[in-house]
């Protein structure tokens, strides 16, 4: 099993509901965007939007480059990191193809602060539901048996989150219907 | 809405005109995209701006602002000329077809191209698409209504659907997405100056009906007015009330307006906002009742304003009405925080101090349930008789038992009823009417014919007589009369008449034809009239506006005297306004949310690259935008192809700046919104609908100067 996100660009309307749900739900500081919406061809035919966060890669490049080995992968495929070990070097950001890692501050000497990123709403290495987990990583909805806030909020069901087999099946069905209708 | 959001899943075509649902109604998009994907429905978006909705369209049509009627009449003409219209529907359920045909024949594809800018070939192609994909839904919003011919625009949309035979059908209908939750409820309560609740109007009969419902003496109500005349005379409107203060246009009232109460509304949504500001300075009293210290409060710079903190919707309860005429019970989530009071409490405090609490609360012992009950008792016209608080709560509590496609409950405590009892819900056991004018179902089961409101026969100016009732054989199943019939006498004031009609399988309001020719409108058949401030002076002579209207909701309203061909020389650029998904209405609430403010921190003017280059403007530069009325705003340039090179677009949800000046010092410390900017409505122009007086903010002119 692997937990994944899929964003269906035929459905995404760039409403930013996912972004706000994430920020509000985890009380993130301004400037930290665990999730973003990217619009291409804005205002022109072919305009498309996509919601992007940590993709919880199967072979996560951030894990490979982290000098303190603070990034780890759970059995269910969710990629998390230990904020108490992170030194804020930013290697993960350079390695990440999606620009997912976030850094809450920057200073004249490039001090970035500890990295923050999408947790798939699964908290972190601190004890589940502990105050420390909430402070460092935000809610742990996966432990509560709930989908991530972003996908739960998505008004057009463009953003799907969950077991990759299940969500890819939903997506395949959707694409098949679109195809059939076009025949 | 004649149909409901879920019903859009059955549409074979979606025709949007003057709607940007992707930003204004994001949650509705799931049904829209469903129809597009599963039904392969063409999604046609007609708009001057390539919106986020247009990004999801299969067919985008760029139209010149203020020319919707010409485009729609062009489509109607194509349907008629090519025999693509629904002849059986027209024969049996439509009146005034000959008059429509004659007027529509003017709008050939070439004429439409000249007026609207839409290529002639496109007009024909879109008409064919509409004809080939039925039933289709027509959806519009403020892009259709906010024009001086807004009422013609809306009627042209309805007539288009009549010609296609798409009315009263699942997947069809005219579906106007309301701008906030409970706008429909506010409309039904007629929080307006020309009608009592339930669209009863202001006649003596209407007053007497409501006095009976309220249990108060008609003579006492009458005694509250300055004189009897004002009891029946429509008051000022939201769009022009401030003229009652500043009186630039002559008013027809015994006194200027001295006090104003803003209860849950943004004043910056009113056009020519710099004049509204002027009114604030002249008023003796301004009362702002709002959960936020809002723009109105900050704009009053004279010591004449009181701010009363009210609660949000989460701190109170009551029934609300959705865009699709459905009621839902909104339960309280938390108790009021800080020293805010619910709207009910604030009203009660006022009523007590005014000294008529005994009369006001005659039927109301338990709030809010008894208020809902009183509404059900009085609003017979739209069939709210079945909206008892217990029933509404039962639906809300059991919403999982209703079907997503039909809205009908399958089993459970609401078995057979439609979610939220969409009005008309004629009786206490009526299931609600999910689709208006649907003659495939019995009236008792949610069916309905067209309303017989305008008599049984009409003689057109050319002498042609027409029966206004539906044709023989056309009625809801089980109707005692299989054909047209007039309204039941007294149905608007007597519930027993309604019950009797339903028992006979008939609609209390009769069974008539829908009119294409409305003799009680200034233009009986919709026709194009150039915007008051037109960028096409050459068309003004051919398509002039109306004569001035001296007493239009108590204020002289200019039409002909305001339409000057030379204006476009000085003010050559068309200005339109609209929504952004991040902010809501005037934005006082959303701009005070740090995350939304971060996403959309400042106001901007969308300018086409060609226009920007002609004016030497670069992306991110500041520019002054000036209106013919003397409004001016300093605003950031956003270079984009969303708009064409003759038009600029500004989102209207901002405030905190006023004609270059910061207003932040007028807020109590710590209450300033995070996102601030100039209100777009400072530069929106003069111009009001001839029937409703809605402001024409989607057909303005302006000029720009580098700041």
Automatic annotation (TrEMBL), chain A:
Task: Cite the PROSITE patterns for this sequence.
Answer: 4FE4S_FER_1 (PS00198), 4FE4S_FER_2 (PS51379)
4Fe-4S ferredoxin-type domain: residues covered: 3-33, 43-76, 77-106
Instruction: Please name the InterPro entries in this protein's record.
Output: 4Fe4S_Fe-S-bd, 4Fe4S_Fe_S_CS, ET_IronSulfur_Cluster-Binding
CDD domains this protein is in?
A: DMSOR_beta_like (cd16371)
The record's section on Pfam families has: Fer4_11
Top-level taxonomic group: Bacteria
Q: Care to name a GO molecular-function term for this sequence?
A: metal ion binding
Q: Which keywords does the record carry? A: 4Fe-4S, Iron, Iron-sulfur, Metal-binding
For this protein, the record's NCBIfam families field holds: FDH3_beta (NF038355)
Query: Can you name this protein?
Result: Formate dehydrogenase
Q: Which organism is it from?
A: Thermodesulfatator autotrophicus
UniProtKB/TrEMBL annotation, chain B:
GO process terms (BP)? anaerobic respiration
One GO term in the molecular function aspect is: 4 iron, 4 sulfur cluster binding
Q: Which UniProt keywords apply?
A: 4Fe-4S, Iron, Iron-sulfur, Metal-binding, Oxidoreductase
Instruction: List, for all copies, the residue spans of the domain called Molybdopterin oxidoreductase.
Output: 1-352
Ranges of residues in domain Molybdopterin dinucleotide-binding: 574-700
Cellular component GO terms, alphabetical: cell envelope
Pfam families in the record: Molybdopterin, Molydop_binding
- Family matches, as SUPFAM superfamilies: ADC-like (SSF50692), Formate dehydrogenase/DMSO reductase, domains 1-3 (SSF53706)
Cofactor(s) needed, names only, are: [4Fe-4S] cluster
Localization in the cell: Cell envelope
Give the Gene3D superfamilies listed for this entry: 2.40.40.20, 3.40.50.740, Dimethylsulfoxide Reductase, domain 2
CDD domains documented for this protein: MopB_CT_Formate-Dh-Na-like (cd02792)
Record flagged with keyword Lipid biosynthesis: no
Q: What is its main location?
A: other
Family that this chain belongs to: Belongs to the prokaryotic molybdopterin-containing oxidoreductase family.
Q: What is this protein called?
A: Formate dehydrogenase
The organism encoding this protein is Thermodesulfatator autotrophicus
């Amino acid at each position: 099993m692997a937990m994944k996100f899929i964003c269906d660009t035929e459905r995404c309307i760039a409403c930013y509901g996912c972004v706000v749900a994430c920020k509000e739900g985890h009380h993130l500081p301004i400037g930290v965007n665990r999730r973003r919406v990217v619009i291409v061809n804005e205002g022109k035919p072919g305009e498309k939007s996509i919601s992007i966060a940590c993709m919880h890669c199967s072979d996560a490049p951030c894990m490979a480059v982290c000098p303190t080995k603070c990034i780890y992968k759970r059995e269910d495929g969710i990629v998390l990191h230990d904020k108490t070990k992170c030194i804020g070097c930013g290697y993960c950001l350079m390695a990440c193809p999606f620009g997912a890692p976030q850094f809450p501050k920057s200073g004249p000497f490039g001090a970035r602060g500890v990295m923050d990123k999408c947790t798939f709403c699964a908290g972190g290495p601190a004890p589940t539901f502990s105050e420390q987990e909430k402070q460092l990583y935000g809610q742990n909805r996966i432990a509560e048996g709930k989908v991530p806030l972003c996908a739960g909020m998505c008004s057009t069901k463009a953003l799907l989150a969950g077991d990759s087999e299940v969500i890819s099946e939903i997506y395949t069905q959707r694409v098949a219907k679109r195809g059939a209708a076009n025949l | 809405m004649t149909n409901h959001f879920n019903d859009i899943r059955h549409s074979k075509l979606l025709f949007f005109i003057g709607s940007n649902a992707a930003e204004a109604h994001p949650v509705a998009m799931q049904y829209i995209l469903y129809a597009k994907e599963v039904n392969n429905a063409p999604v046609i978006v007609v708009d001057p701006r390539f919106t986020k909705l247009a990004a999801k369209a299969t067919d985008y049509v760029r139209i010149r602002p203020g020319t919707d009627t010409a485009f729609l009449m062009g489509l109607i003409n194509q349907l008629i000329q090519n025999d693509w219209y629904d002849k059986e529907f027209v024969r049996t359920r439509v009146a005034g077809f000959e008059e429509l045909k004659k007027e529509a024949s003017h709008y050939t594809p070439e004429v439409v191209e000249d007026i609207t800018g839409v290529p002639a070939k496109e007009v024909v192609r879109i008409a064919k698409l509409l004809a080939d994909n039925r039933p289709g839904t027509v959806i519009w919003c403020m892009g259709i209504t906010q024009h001086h011919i807004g009422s013609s625009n809306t009627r042209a949309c309805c007539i288009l659907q009549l010609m296609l035979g798409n009315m009263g059908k699942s997947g069809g209908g005219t579906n106007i997405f309301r701008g906030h939750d409970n706008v429909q409820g506010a409309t039904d309560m007629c929080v307006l100056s020309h009608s009592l609740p339930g669209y009863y109007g202001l006649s003596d009969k209407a007053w007497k009906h409501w006095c009976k419902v309220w249990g108060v003496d008609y003579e006492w109500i009458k005694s509250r007015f300055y004189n009897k005349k004002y009891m029946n005379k429509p008051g000022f409107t939201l769009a022009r009330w401030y003229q009652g203060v500043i009186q630039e246009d002559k008013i027809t009232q015994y006194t200027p307006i001295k006090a104003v109460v803003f209860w849950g509304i943004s004043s910056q949504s009113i056009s020519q906002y710099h004049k509204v500001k002027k009114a604030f300075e002249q008023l003796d009293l301004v009362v702002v009742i709002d959960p936020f210290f809002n723009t109105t409060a900050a704009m009053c710079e004279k010591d004449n304003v009181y701010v009363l903190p009210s609660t949000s919707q989460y701190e109170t309860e009551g029934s609300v009405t959705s865009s699709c005429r459905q009621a839902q019970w909104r339960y309280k989530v938390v108790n009021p925080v800080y020293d805010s009071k619910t709207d009910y409490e604030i009203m009660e405090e006022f009523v007590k101090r005014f000294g008529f609490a005994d009369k006001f609360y005659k039927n109301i012992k338990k709030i809010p349930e008894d208020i809902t009950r009183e509404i059900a008792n009085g609003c017979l016209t739209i069939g709210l008789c079945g909206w008892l608080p217990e029933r509404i709560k039962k639906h809300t509590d059991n919403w999982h038992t209703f079907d997503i496609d039909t809205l009908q409950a399958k089993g459970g405590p609401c078995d057979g009823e439609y979610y939220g009892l969409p009005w008309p819900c004629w009786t206490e056991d009526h299931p609600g009417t999910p689709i208006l004018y649907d003659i495939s179902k019995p009236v008792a089961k949610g069916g309905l014919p067209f309303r017989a409101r305008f008599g049984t026969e009409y003689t057109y100016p050319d002498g042609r007589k027409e029966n206004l009732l539906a044709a023989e054989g056309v009625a809801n199943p089980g109707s005692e009369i299989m054909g047209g019939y007039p309204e039941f006498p007294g149905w608007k004031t007597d519930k027993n008449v309604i019950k009797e009609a339903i028992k006979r399988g008939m609609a209390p309001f009769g069974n008539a034809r829908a009119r294409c020719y409305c003799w009680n409108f200034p233009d009986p058949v919709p026709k194009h009239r150039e915007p008051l401030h037109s960028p096409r002076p050459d068309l003004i002579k051919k398509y002039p506006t109306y004569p001035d209207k001296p007493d239009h909701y108590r204020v002289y309203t200019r039409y002909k005297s305001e339409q000057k061909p030379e204006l476009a020389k000085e003010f050559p650029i068309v200005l339109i306004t609209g929504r952004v998904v991040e902010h809501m209405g005037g934005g006082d609430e959303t701009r005070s949310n740090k995350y939304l403010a971060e996403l959309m921190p400042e106001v901007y003017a969308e300018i086409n690259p060609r226009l920007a280059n002609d004016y030497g403007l670069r992306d991110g530069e500041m520019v002054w935008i000036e209106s013919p009325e003397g409004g001016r705003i300093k605003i950031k340039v956003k270079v984009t192809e969303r708009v064409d090179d003759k038009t600029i677009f500004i989102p209207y949800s901002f405030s905190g700046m006023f004609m270059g000046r910061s207003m932040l010092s007028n807020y109590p410390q710590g209450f300033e919104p995070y996102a601030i900017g100039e209100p777009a409505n400072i530069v929106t122009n003069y111009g009001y609908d001839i029937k409703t007086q809605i402001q024409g903010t989607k057909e303005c002119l302006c000029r720009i100067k580098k700041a």
